[in-house]
Structure formats: structure tokens, C-alpha cells
Amino acid sequence: MISAGFNLSQSSEDADIIIINTCGFIKDAKEESIGVIFDALDMKEQYAEEGSLHSFPGKKIVALGCLTKRYFDEINNDIPEIDFLYPIPDSSFVPAMAAEFNIKIRALLSKRKPLYSNPPFSYIKISDGCSNNCSYCAIPLIRGGHKAFDPEFIYSEALEAVKNGAIELIIIAQDIASYRWGETALPQLVKKISAIGGLKWIRLLYCHPDNITDEIIDLIAENSKVVPYIDIPFQHINSRILKSMGRKGDYKVYLDLVKRLRDRVEGIVIRSTFMTGYPGETADEFNELLDFINEARLDKVGCFIFSPEDDTAAADMADDVNPEIKQERFDALMSLQMRISEEKLQAMIGSEVDVLVEEKIDEQTYIGRTPFDAPEVDGVFYLTSASDRVNSIVRARITDSYEYDLIGEIL
User: Does the reported pTM lie above 0.85?
Assistant: First the structure.
């Protein structure tokens, strides 16, 4: 868009065109996407009432992404106030939008530029789609099967991100453990990326537990730039439920994986997600899940309440767990994990860690992240420092902790 001649606006209030990238993964995400669309339409209406201060003829609302791809006709019919509706953005999106709004654009460049200057981290997507076909998940319906990206393209994206100021690269996909391009699998790909000068941290997100190999574990253990952190969405540990989900594990298999990671990678932090209220989940099966969380003592845990997704296998199952029970189980799981997290963070008080400083909030207080925290989903580090060290990695001592966050001072 920048190469086409568009300029980034710092706020939606000041923008001529508001582009909303929607999510169609679960019920809450769908509802949030629709809510953001209606907020933007309210802003558009207010803008029209106040009179345009711009040369552009009114504020335009664009919606695209997974939700619009999956429910294109329904959204088009139900929310006609959206000025331009598009499925998942591709190389045709910018010309199509420009034509819709009668905007003349310059020749497009395929090379991407960051929206904001000097970002301390960048996401590097290595594939799209998923072929695991879990019973509850609509991603294969929306994104299709797993499609690996060319490693040379991925490397060029990583190189450009570091040139633009990123000192942490976050390797992402629906399942990075499935990555393969010819003879190149995830370990070989990350090894090549790790040779980029100026890059300090590489973080691995979203490894399906059934696809984690010894080579991936060795990658985390042996590559000094790969932080000791991994995100493994277990979803459940009961064998019957996992089989119904289309997964292969069970309590013992997943606990053994946790132990292998901890034995092989010193100080590794393991993040996971679980689901409560899957069709047919009994009290005993849920209690087995609580037992696992209590025994495994994972460092970071997120939780979702099951909601049937159209056209998935689980949507045809009887959604027979009472909504109140689903919520009670969610609350019980997260309460247990909050206690575990609090205990783990308290045990870190007095130790020293590296902190990537990301934001200054007052004269001597900064917000950052340790190698054990991914952006957006994990905790933060509140750092006291007399000097401005934003977008750098510093050594700090932990002096206190909250349930999910740490407090400390620069050394």
C-alpha cells in the first residue's frame, strides 16, 4: 500500500480508509471482529455528520480476512454499509480496493515495509493453512491445507526485518513443526535465519504436539539465538477426547513430551492452550485435565471454551456440556494456572534476566519482555532505569512479581 501511494494514519479517527482484518477462528473472535466493524461504521457516520475535513469523499470502511472469506455473502447482505468487502488479502487486494474507490495508484512493489519504524520484534510467517484437521477447527476450511513458503523468501523477510530494527524474530504459522520445503525442515530453516547479523532472539510459536521431533528439541537446546520457549497447543490430555479431536496424544504422551523438553533444554518455558466443554467432556475427564496441569506445571496457559464452528466435525456432535459448566471449568482451570504462574514468578525474585525494552511509560519506568514472554499473549517486565534503553536488550534483576508480570531494575 505504501508503494501504491497510500500513507499510514496514526489513528482511525484521522484515516480516510479504515481496513479491518477479521478473524473467523472461534465465536469470541468472530464477535470481536463484528464489533470492530460496527465501531468503525459508527465512526464513519459521525464523520459524515460533522462534515468532511479531508479531500477524500468521506470515510471508507474495508473489511477483509478469515471471517469475510468464510461468510462473505452473509456479511455482504447483513452489513451493506461496509464500503469494500474482500476475503483474505492477496496481491490483487490493493488494486481492487483502489478501483472500487476510484483511486489512481502507482506501480506496486512486492517488498514489504514495516508500518512503524524501528520495531524491536517482527513476526516471520513460514507457511499458511493447516493439514492437521482437528475436529473443532475451521482453519483448514478457511486457509486450506498446509502450504510451506519458499525458504529463500522467508530468509529475505527475516533479513529485511532485522535491517529495519528487529532484534527478535518470531517464527509463526498454524503449525511451524509441520514446515518442510524439499529437504528443508524447521531446524534447517531456523539455523539459516539465526546466522543473520544483529539478530538476538528467535522465538518459536505454535508447534502441534504430535509433530514435535527430537530435531526441533535439539534446535532449541543448541542454537544460542533460539530462546528457551515453545508454544505447544495441547488442547486436552484425555485420550478419548483427543481421539475425537483427531489428535494422537494422551496424558502420559504429553507429560513425557514436557519432561523431554525440560530435560534437554535448560530453563525452557512451555506455553500451551486448552479447551473446556468439548462435546461429551465429563467431570472425570475435566478433572484429569486439571491433574495434568497440576503435575506438568506449565509456565503459561491459555484456555478456550468450546464453541461449535460451522462445517467442522465437532459441529455435528451434540454440544451437550451446559454453558454454565463450561464457564465453571474454564474458571477452575485458569484459577489453578494463575496460582502456578504466581508461584513460578515468585521463585524468580532475586535472579537476573535479559529484558527486551519496548516502551517508556514515565521518566524512569519502562515495559519490556524477557526471553520467556512472547508479545501480546504473555506477561511483561516493568523495568526501572535511569537511561532510555528502548529497543535494546538489557540485563535486569527481578525484585517483585504479580500473577503474570515481573518487576525489576536494570543492572
Answer: yes
